[in-house]
Amino acid sequence: MTSGKGPLRVESGRKSPFLESALSLRLQAQNLACERDDRWLFRGLDLDIRAGEIVRVEGPNGSGKTTLLKILSGQLADYEGELYWDERPMRQARESFLSNLLYMGHAPGVKAALTPLENLAWYQAMAGQPRDEAARFAALEDVGLAGFEDLPAGQLSAGQQRRVALARLVLTPRPLWVLDEPFTAIDRDGVGALEQRLVEHARRGGCVLVTTHHELTPCAELRRIRLGGGGVDVGN
Amino acid sequence: MWAFINKLRSPKWFYAISARLQPWFWAAALLLIGTGTIWGLAFAPADYQQGNSFRIIYVHVPAAFLAQSIFVSMAITGLVFMVWKIKICDMAAAMMAPLGAAMTFIALFSGAVWGVPTWGTWWMWDARLTSMLILLFLYLGVIALRGAFTSRDSASRAASVLAMVGVINIPIIKYSVDWWYTLHQPATFTITGRAAMPMEMWAPLLIMVLGFYSFFIALTLTRVRSEILRRESNKHWVRELAGETR
Amino acid sequence: MSATDGSLSGGDMSVGHVEPQGGLTVAFCATLKRDLVLMLRRRSEVMNPLVFFAIVITLFPIGISPDPQLLAAIAPGLLWVAALLAALLSLDSLFRADYDDGSLEQLLLTPQPLALLTLAKVAVHWLLTGLPLALMAPLLGIMLALPAGSYLVLALSLALGTASLSLIGAIGAALTVGLSRGGVLLSLLVLPLYIPVLIFGAGAVQAAILGDGIMAHLAILGALLSLALCLAPWAIAASLRISING
Q1: C213 pLDDT tier (thresholds 50, 70, 90)
Q2: Which of A36-40, A50-54, B12-16, B73-77 has the lowest mean pLDDT?
Q3: With contacts defined as CB-CB under 8 Å, which chain A residues touch C105?
Q4: Per-residue b/e over B68-87, b at no fewer than 16 CB within 10 Å?
Q5: ipTM for the whole complex
Q6: Residue C11 — very low, low, confident or very high, per pLDDT cuts 50/70/90?
Q7: Residues near B105 by Cβ (< 8 Å), separated by ≥ 6?
Q8: Are residues A150 and A169 in the same domain?
Q9: I want to staple A170 with a disulfide (CB 3.0 to 4.6 A). Which of A139, B20, C118, C207 is the partner?
Q10: Same domain for A205 and A95
Q11: What is the least distance, in Å, from the CA of C44 to any CA of chain A?
């Protein structure tokens, strides 16, 4: 908790909005294994994910990427091995972990019958944030949805609906992002902007765990984990 | 306690220990059911009211006992499976469900047959029969839910939750049905009345009940053993075992 | 923990630290409000169970007999069974939309206890299904020649009873939400569990017609509701966690 304070400041070179969390932002997995219906998706997985990293989980279809992300985001308790958040076992740290997590799954989690503003209002409340309409407008503008705030999300394109979900990244400051295929349905400009946002988040002391078919531009923050064939290849 | 639970985690251990246990239960089941049947059908005195038709009690009551006990065991094994992730317990729950449904059906069927000489009809909305019928629906629900999932792990968990929800509801259902029955048909003759039974009548009944329980345990052990082999067929120890016996 | 960054990172730290109180209430109310708005935007879905209720009640005089005396005798049971089925009808969609669009995952990932948040969804189901059915039942009671003096009890017992039905039914809905064709299975799972509520609900109306005391029935319905309120949310939460990974 005390170590890492100095280097982090030097590295990022600017004041991190996640500073306090970033000091203890650390997600570890020890000897993680997941068996689904008598088949090992992966086993013997050791992970140490820290502030300032973008970790891309790679692997062929069916290699357990989504399952790993669900385990690491605390949705799936059906695994062997140990998970630690802030160097505490996940079971004890669950509430603190969830308060620091922003997860986006395959489905964007956007209600078609509600407007983007209303969708974000729910997320704001669920995150324990005060009601703040200006912040919601700003977040939507940030993801390129200015002018679409009051249309039912069902009338938006798939890419725009995905952008509504992505607005949460702006709206709710959380240090740990777990994103399952966030680039789905996003146009090329949007992909570039999102990629930039991930790097920016890591540089500010956040931490990103992502699966994607889209090839990320190599950068200092990027790290890869490869799943597949029951074995695990952890590279840096 | 902990040591036992940890041992249960190993299907291999269970496979070995059940190999030693199951002959005893099969033998006990055979002996008890055989004795009970002969005693109950041939030697026990006839009922002064119902005559010989009362002898169906020797099937009806043990089956009804078992039907309820199996549901409770299913909920308990489900709970143990959910809490400690012990696969043996889930296998046991999965194997017990059809047996429990069968026992419920036997209890219902024997009750209906019994109804012919007693009430002159195949079906009466008797409190016990109605509760049994609802229990059968609960069993069918658990079996159907387990079958509906493509992932077996999810199926196991869902069936465990449903069994636990069911077991909390069974007493509530039972009492409300009893209450409903007394309201609508006060003081009719129930087939398994609580009238004092002479020893010559209830001794074979007791033996039959014990025999049915032994049968239940023996059959569950045998079925769980084959389920272990099926689920663990890609494990090393099962392959070794298959090599030995071949 | 120092507060150096308090101004910048309002929600970064665990919500427990930042906002020890209010988090759950805010999340609960937000979910309640969102679901109410969603349902009110699709009014036909709110209307469907009510129309179904009316149609089913219409079928009975046609199928049995228009004789008011006969209808009056079976009206309490008919109204209760039809309302129960109507409430069941809308149950399948309780979690399905959330499951499909991914907001169920998000609900599961809030630091607030899931069991209590699901109560918000159940409350919306009751408010827009059970309560309207209860209010509509007296109207249909007139059509079935329900004896005077039992109308208030009919509405009251339905209002109380459907709350339990929503809670119990939500367990089934949560268990089957991951299955593509869960609708029929859902009925199979929850209908047996509905029986106690049906017995005391219809019993209350019957008692009112006969001029007996109704407080006992309503008290038992209340007891069933409190039991369901205590236990069902945990079962719903556990079932949702299973289904999300099915």
Answers
A1: confident
A2: A36-40
A3: 75, 103, 105, 107, 109
A4: bbbbebbbbbbbbbbeeebb
A5: 0.87
A6: very low
A7: B136
A8: yes
A9: A139
A10: yes
A11: 14
Identify the closest residue of chain C to B133 by CA–CA distance: C192
Tell if the CB–CB gap between C196 and B164 is shorter than 8 Å: no
pLDDT, tens digit (0-9, with 9 covering 90-100), for B31-48: 999 999 999 888 888 877
User: Chains with ≥3 Cβ pairs under 8 A against A?
Assistant: B, C
Mean predicted confidence (pLDDT) in C23-44: 91
Architecture of the B24-41+53-190+198-231 domain: Up-down Bundle (1.20)
Final residue of a domain: which of A120, A139, A173?
A: A173
Q: Indicate whether A15 belongs to any domain.
A: no
C158-206: pLDDT as tens digits: 999 999 999 999 999 999 999 988 789 999 999 999 999 999 999 999 9
Rounded (5°) CA angle C105-A179-A23 = 105
- Domain count of the fold of chain A: 2
Residues of C in Cβ contact (< 8 Å) with A150 = none
Judged by average pLDDT, the poorest of A72-81, A172-181, C18-27, C232-241 is C18-27
Flag whether residue B176 sits within 8 Å of chain C, measured between CB atoms.
yes
- CB within 8 Å: B234 and A36: no
In chain A, residues with a C-beta closer than 8 Å to the C-beta of C100 are: 107
Distance in angstroms (rounded) separating the CA atoms of residues C245 and A74? 12
Asked if C27 and A128 come within 8 Å (Cβ–Cβ), the reply is: yes
Give residue limits of the domains in chain C: 21-243
> Chain A: residue nearest B82 by CA?
A78
Chains that touch B (3 or more CB pairs under 8 A): A, C
Q: Give the domain range for residue A93.
A: 21-100+178-236
Over residues A217-227, the pLDDT tens digits come to 888 888 888 88
**A205 to chain C: nearest residue by CA?**
C12
